[in-house]
Amino acid sequence: MNGVILIDKPAGITSFDVVHILRKLTDVKKIGHAGTLDPFATGLLLVCISRNATRQIDRFSQLDKSYTATLRFGKKTDTGDVEGKVVEVSSIPELSERIISDVLKSFIGKIKQVPPKFSAIKRNGKPLYKLARKGIDVAIEPRIVTIHSIKMKNFTLNEITFNVKVSKGTYIRTLGEDIADRLGTVGHLVQLRRDSIGPFRADEAIAIDELTKDTIQAHITPMEVMIERLSNERPA
After folding, report:
1. Which one of 37, 111, 138, 192 has the minimum C-beta count within 10 Å?
2. Are 59 and 12 in a shared domain?
3. Total of domains in the chain
4. How far apart are CA 120 and CA 123, in angstroms?
5. How do 143-155 and 109-113 pair as beta strands?
6. Could you confirm whether 38 is annotated as catalytic?
7. What is the CATH number of the domain that holds 146?
8. Residues ≥6 apart with Cβ < 8 Å to 135
9. Annotated catalytic residue, options 8, 17, 38, 209
10. Looking at the structure, do residues 70 and 165 belong to the same domain, yes or no?
11. Residue 236 lies in a domain
12. For residue 232, what pLDDT is reported?
């Protein structure tokens, strides 16, 4: 087996769990994914199978990504998502679609973003999330990321769902917190789905419960086909 398989990751498992499942089903040890999804998140995961394919992981990791996220207002968690502990509670101001849309538009372009302490970024060789679990606080430098587009999809009294297309390295959990802050409250993500990575879409992907050795073989895309699709991708 040699190429890339598009997986639709369900909530409740890690990206590495997906890799582990594929290793067991294929007996191929050299497998890696191109861009972590949080355990609570769902959607597209590109998984490279074979030594030759994994050499191309960085090429796929650099691609822009699009997501659909649901942000709930009024409570902030230590992880920025529904799996964390509530660390702050705030009232929710009276909001309107116009107010929310204007705030969302204000994020378009290059912005400074401080990655969450519960992330896989490493400090002195150790992932930040491991330090955070031990209660060790470290200073995290902001990074420049790009929000290509962002648009509200649904709006209720205490939450919004929005679509967003971003550059590599953008944390949607942090973006959600920053949106809530700019609206005068706090918030955390309750749902997150990755819809696409570059030209590759979640609706092309295979679900975990459909994986067998035969279906994996049928859904692997040869590297030359992946590269050809990348060459036809228009810049954002």
Report:
1. 138
2. yes
3. 2
4. 9
5. antiparallel
6. yes
7. 3.30.2350.10
8. none
9. 38
10. yes
11. no
12. 82
Q: Is 168 inside a domain boundary?
A: yes
What residue has token string 């979640």?
A: 202
Please check whether residues 156 and 217 belong to one and the same domain.
Answer: no
Same domain, 69 and 59: no
Q: Note the residue count of the chain.
A: 236
Per the CB < 8 A criterion, the answer to whether 114 and 140 are in contact is yes
Whole-number Å distance between alpha carbons of 83 and 183: 23
First to last CA, the chain: 32
Closest Cα partner for 194 from 35, 18, 56?
35
Average pLDDT for 46-60: 94
Q: Dihedral of the CA atoms 13, 15, 16, 20 (nearest 10)?
A: 70
86-89 and 109-113 beta bridge pairing: unpaired
Pick the closest to residue 79 from 182, 192, 195 (CA basis).
192
pTM over 0.85: yes
Reference 116, options 174, 191, 190; nearest CA is: 174
Task: Report the alpha-carbon distance of residue 171 to residue 46 in Å, rounded.
Answer: 18
Q: What is the pLDDT of residue 121?
A: 62
Give a yes or no: residue 36 inside a domain: yes
% of the chain beyond a pLDDT of 90: 81
Q: Are 155 and 72 in contact (CB under 8 A)?
A: no
Looking at residue 236, what is its pLDDT? 47
**Domain containing residue 205:** 3-63+198-231
One domain for residues 215 and 131: no
